Amino acid sequence: MEKTEWYFEYELQHNRPGLLGDISSLLGMLSINIVMINGIENKKRGMLILSEDDENIERLKTILDKLDTIRITKLRKPSVLDILAVRHGKYIHRDSEDRKTVKFVREEFGLLVDFMAELFKAKGHKLIGVRGMPRVGKTESIVAGSVSANKKWLFVSSTLLKQTVRKKLIEGEYGEDYIYIIDGVVSKQRADEQHWRLIREIMRLPAIKVIEHPDIFVQGTEYSMKDFDYIIEIRRHKDEEINYDQMMDKFMPGNEMFEL
Is 70 in the same domain as 151? Predict the structure, then answer.
């Protein structure tokens, strides 16, 4: 029988020596294997576990619910966020109102790259927006995530080295092995209709597209924020404001300081 992966997370109510050993022994008696384990914020511990029988997972829950030393907080099939929580020992923060928005600060660069890589490994179309002030690491993290996911990246519009505004792709630049990167400000402020025809063509491809400055990108187009599967926000610190008005005043056409 094929084994199924689960995410098991619990919160310590009364820590005592040997508690983890007791839980590990219980998992062993139920023929449940531990794949990965790590401490997570606020006295929690998370595990990725494997079981051949879902009934053993129910037995595990029944037994642990009777203990006063721990409280089960999650026991479910693992999401990308669960896997990364165990790997890094911390949660990825989601917007309380818009659950497709995830938030990072610059010091969480490794966690951010791992999250992007997991998204980039998906098959077919996925549209990802990346918000952040200039030089916070948007393009750097996208490229690093592409490398980690073993995907090639292609700049459709960018200011990374010099201003890039592509009007067509060449043979070999099509396919789901590519991550197509579009700078929403460059495309909105500097591009012509040929460039936008290329963007529409790319949007129809069964591949990953990443839009920097998605809020600017959708202005005056047929696309909307509802089209995005994820919005990633990157800040230098938790309280930094992402202010597009400030950016647009500085980076108008004709300004040679155009760098986002």
Answer: no
Give me the domain span that covers residue 109: 92-250
Q: Which of 34, 67, 85 is the last residue of a domain?
A: 85
Q: How many whole angstroms separate alpha carbon 68 and alpha carbon 250?
A: 58
Domain membership flag for residue 256: no
132 and 229 co-located in one domain: yes
Q: For the chain, how many structural domains are there in total? A: 2
Does this model's pTM top 0.85? My answer is no
Domain end (from 53, 85, 117)? 85
Q: What is the pLDDT along the chain (260 residues), one digit of tens a residue?
A: 688 999 999 998 877 777 888 899 999 999 999 999 999 887 899 999 999 999 999 999 999 999 888 899 999 999 999 999 999 998 888 877 778 999 999 999 999 999 999 999 989 999 999 999 988 999 999 999 999 999 999 999 988 766 788 999 998 899 889 999 999 988 988 788 999 999 999 999 999 999 999 999 999 889 999 999 999 999 999 889 988 776 665 555 554 444 44
Are 127 and 58 found together in one domain? Answer: no
Same domain, 128 and 63: no
